[in-house]
Design a protein that fits this description.
about 400 residues, Helix Hairpins, Heat Shock Protein 90, 3 domains, 11 helices
Length: about 400
Amino acid sequence: MQVSLGIALAIVAAVVGFVVGGFIVPRIHARSEQRAAEQQGPSRLEVLREVYHQAPFALAVVDRHQDVVLYNRRAAELGIVDDRLLVEPVWRAAQVTFKGSGPSAFDLPAKIVSGRRRIPSVSGRSEILGGHGEQFVVVFADDDSEHRRMEAARRDFVANVSHELKTPVGAMAVLAEALIESKDDPETVEYFGGRVVSEAHRLGKMVTELIELSRLQGAERIRDLQPVDVDDVVDEAIRRSASAAEAAGIELITDPPSGLEVTGDRTLLVTALTNLVSNAVNYSPERTPVSITRAIDGDTVMLRVTDRGIGIAPDQQGRVFERFFRVDKARSRATGGTGLGLAIVKHVAQNHNGSVSLWSRPGTGSTFTLELPAHFEPGGDGALPSAEHDQQGEDQVP
């Protein structure tokens, strides 16, 4: 019995030893190695590889036979590499670098590939990859669409400003010469003197609006937003436009106070609405009304300015918010318009997370709608007093 018990114990010990040695110990070692690897983290090479592939700009390495030995995802997305080969304009730049001419720049225009995928315009350069006997060239490239767009806008802006400023300056020079020649005729001096004053005011207004527009275009959306009383904005815009409207025989009418509030900057909002009202007055015939109305739709307040003027042709409606665009240049100059008012309105709206839109029909009139985020008091039920106003339909001016 004692012998049998000894044999059993020996067998159990052998089994336990086999299990511990064959299964448990290796697993403990494997887990220890795994924990050590996790603590160590990825290798430096793995980190560099991930950085290379996640770089926000295109990178590619090519040899003298045009074989791309390495490239990241961005290089494929921007069309630098196609089927493991550099596209032709990029390869030409690389060849120049291989010939010892140093870094070489290249540009790729925007294009559509595979019928639907759009590749933006790209610019970049090629350089010799150091430390490898000049056997490889590295290509750097990035999307420059926004830069090109901004450059084009800047050139257009400078050209437009130069042209527009030249007109009143030239007119003032001619009028000043006429004044000198008419110094012995008081009536003529008074006439030309008035014209000089008018052109000077127009020039000053244009410079002021250019400064305002430049500030708005370079600004981010307004961060320090405050509740603004819509009725106060409407009243101030009407007050500022009253003299011009009275001189033109235009009646300014509006709906009752609404109690609405928007989130924004009061000064900018008054400027935007005043520009819309002034624009409506300038393009309205005598003895016709210009109306300013308030409405709310969900969390958006809508300020509408409607005239019964000449209207705007469909092919011109998409351009009315461009700088210096005028529907009727002769009428605009006669009223002292600068062609900047609606551009300012557009940028004020954008900086307030809002928008401005146009409805117009030639011979019937136009309605400009300024849409802005509504302000609700914390803890309120979302309802605002006097929020129900007639809204303009798609097919008629109210």
